[in-house]
TrEMBL record:
Cellular component GO terms, alphabetical: cytosol
EC numbers for this chain: 4.2.1.12
Record's function text: Catalyzes the dehydration of 6-phospho-D-gluconate to 2-dehydro-3-deoxy-6-phospho-D-gluconate.
Name recorded for this polypeptide: Phosphogluconate dehydratase
GO biological process: D-gluconate metabolic process; Entner-Doudoroff pathway through 6-phosphogluconate
Membrane-traversing stretches: none
Gene3D superfamilies: IlvD/EDD C-terminal domain-like (3.50.30.80)
Reactions catalysed, as given in the entry: 6-phospho-D-gluconate = 2-dehydro-3-deoxy-6-phospho-D-gluconate + H2O
Organism, as annotated: Sphingomonas gellani
Enzyme class: lyase
Pfam families xref list: ILV_EDD_C, ILVD_EDD_N
Name of the coding gene: edd
């Protein structure tokens, strides 16, 4: 192993020693004594079997494994619309393997792309906790010996895992649906957005560009949070190998899903290849996910999601671990917004099998983890193909395009492109893999806002001409649910294109598609409750320094200490936001995952 990866893994193991032991003790108790089909009463079993007459006899006999399907299907979210027919197909494939399958439950799956910039986005982060709770409800019936988790997008995969890990004695496989075919190139879409922000494109032109980019069923093709989820499931060994970026509606996609169902039937507790989720998701798998995030230039949202997933398994990983890894892990991919290619081009150039093989051979990934497919991660370095009508895996060979994916020995950058910033404003993270190096340091006057819509209005009014650090506060998990502030990307990009030195500092989030503008995000502690971002005033000189890892307001210390905190905006209401007051009130800080439910769970 690379010495830094090994050292960070040791830190995580040591820090997690007591919480991981407590978690595994819980899972062992569940494996030995939890409610399960042989122990259920006859009326309970009759209720469970009544809805599936085709499989009732096999279920009643009790010899077949019963697989619970937890699905995030809806046809408003393109990535999840593909799941419409999956349950009925999976029931057939389960029977082929001598098993049965039932839809255990559904989980909500909202689309951040639809809610960006609107009040519904303030429900987005806590939809992850809701998904975790819904997953727990789905699996609480005691009638399943394993589970298939159907989910792809931003909060859905983390939420599924957070809930599923509390049933970690069961084997589980995550089943993706794949990205939509390529449409309008992402850079062309971004250019139209910037033209519209400047008033040089009509709404009709913008809508045409957006529909050209997001045009069919499947995951969006840029490398945002959804596709970063799929990368992480690969490097953690929770997919069938090579499943992440195979397009929907293809024979290969269908056969990978079929193989996942067959494999799930083979790794149950009753067989000789038992692979419970709790043992697959260990400290090494979590570090693998962090390495994959950095090596591929993935979404900053996972600086929230990965700690939350880890905590659900009794594991504690923090931003310091991420920072140390980022200094050593090479950047081996360039996928939009870190390059011009989309995930389909990435897949064609070698995709995750190439990346995993390279990182394994260079010692950046832990090979010796329990995966759903085998005893270690080696199988994930092979690419799935159809050999006639048979699913097979082959070596991915050399990179098909070194402008998209490179060997670990010849990376795009020797480091992973994420930094942790610390200073008198608190702790924040910044993604610099898509930021030109001469923009890694911005020192400029602050312009302070408490709502992203006010930033947009100031831009439209021509008030944001010049070098500046835009400060947007009261956007943290306790204030308003920590919405993404992706609507700010086009105007900030326009200002940067005009030659100004600009940066964003916020206790909120940016989209996984954020790119060329330096953004210090997830600032903790947040403004609500007294975080120092509340002390910033218009005109204060703010220094964002991704080279040295600092974030400071350059204000006289006595004056800084004497400043009072501003009044907080009223609690959000409307669009159902008032229903999430409990989540906001219980949420912990961003570095711990910004979760309400984990703050009260046994760790």
């Amino acid at each position: 192993m690379h010495p830094q990866v090994s050292a960070v893994t040791d830190r995580v193991i040591e820090r997690s020693r007591s919480s991981r032991a407590a978690y595994l003790a819980l899972i062992d108790r569940e494996a030995e004594g939890s409610i399960r089909r042989p122990n259920l009463g006859c009326a309970n079993l009759a209720h469970a079997y009544a809805g599936t007459p085709e499989d009732r006899v096999a279920m009643r006999d009790g010899g077949a494994m019963n697989i619970g399907i937890v699905t995030s299907y809806n046809d408003m979210l393109s990535a999840h619309a593909v799941y419409y027919r999956y349950p009925e197909q999976m029931k057939v494939w389960a029977r082929e393997a001598g098993a049965t399958a039932q839809v255990a439950g559904g989980v909500p799956a909202m689309c951040d792309g639809v809610t960006q910039g609107y009040p519904g986005m303030e429900l987005s982060l806590f939809s992850r906790d809701t998904i975790a709770l819904s997953t727990a409800v789905a699996l609480s019936h005691g009638t399943f010996e394993g589970a298939a988790l159907l989910g792809i997008c931003d909060k859905i995969v983390p939420g599924l895992l957070m809930g599923a890990l509390r049933f970690g004695h069961l084997p589980m496989i995550l089943i993706p649906g794949g990205p939509m075919p390529s449409g309008l190139p992402n850079k062309a879409k971004a250019a139209v957005r910037e033209r519209y922000a400047e008033g040089n494109a009509t709404r009709e032109e913008l809508l045409e560009a957006e529909i050209g980019a997001y045009h069919s069923q499947g995951t969006c093709t840029f490398y945002g949070t959804a596709n970063t989820n799929q990368m992480m499931m690969e490097v953690m060994g929770l997919h069938m190998p090579g499943s992440a970026f195979v397009n929907p509606g293809t024979k290969l996609r269908q056969e990978l899903t079929r193989a996942a169902v067959h494999r799930l039937a083979a790794i149950g507790q009753r067989g000789d290849d038992y692979r419970p989720l709790a043992r697959c998701v260990d400290e090494r798998a979590i570090v693998n996910a962090a390495v994959g995030l950095l090596a591929t230039g993935g979404s900053t949202n996972h600086l929230l999601h990965l700690p939350a997933i880890a905590r659900a398994a009794g594991i504690v990983i923090d931003w310091e671990d991420m920072d140390r890894l980022s200094c050593s892990v090479p950047l081996v991919t360039r996928v939009y917004p870190n390059g011009s290619a989309d995930v389909n081009a990435f897949e064609a150039a070698g995709g995750m099998p190439f990346v995993i093989r390279e990182l394994l051979d260079a010692g950046y990934l832990h090979r010796d983890i329990m995966t759903v497919a085998g005893d270690d991660l080696t199988a994930y370095g092979a690419k799935p193909v159809m050999d006639g009508d048979t699913l097979a895996w082959r070596d991915p060979g050399a990179s098909g395009d070194e402008a998209i994916v490179r060997p670990a020995a010849d990376p795009f950058s020797p480091d992973g492109g994420m930094r942790i910033l610390k200073g008198n404003l608190g702790r924040a993270c910044i993604k610099v893999s898509a930021v030109e190096r001469e923009r890694w340091i911005v020192e400029a006057p602050a312009r302070v806002f408490s709502d992203q819509l006010d930033v947009l209005e100031a831009f439209k009014a021509g008030e944001l001409e010049g070098d500046m650090v835009v400060v947007v506060r009261f956007q943290g998990p306790r204030a308003n649910g920590m919405p993404e502030l992706h609507k700010l990307t086009p105007p900030l990009g326009v200002l940067q294109n005009r030659g100004f030195r600009v940066a964003l500092v916020t206790d909120g989030r940016m989209s996984g598609a954020s790119g060329k503008v330096p953004c210090a995000i997830h600032l903790s502690p947040e403004a609500l409750g007294g975080g120092p971002i509340g002390r910033v005033r218009d005109g204060d000189i703010i220094r964002v320094d991704a080279v040295n890892g600092t974030l400071d307001a350059l204000v006289d210390q006595a004056e800084w200490n004497a400043r009072e905190q501003p009044a907080a905006p009223p609690p959000p209401a409307g669009m159902g936001r008032e229903l999430f007051g409990m989540f906001r009130g219980l949420a912990d800080e961003a570095e711990k995952g910004a979760s309400a439910i984990l703050a009260g769970a046994m760790l």
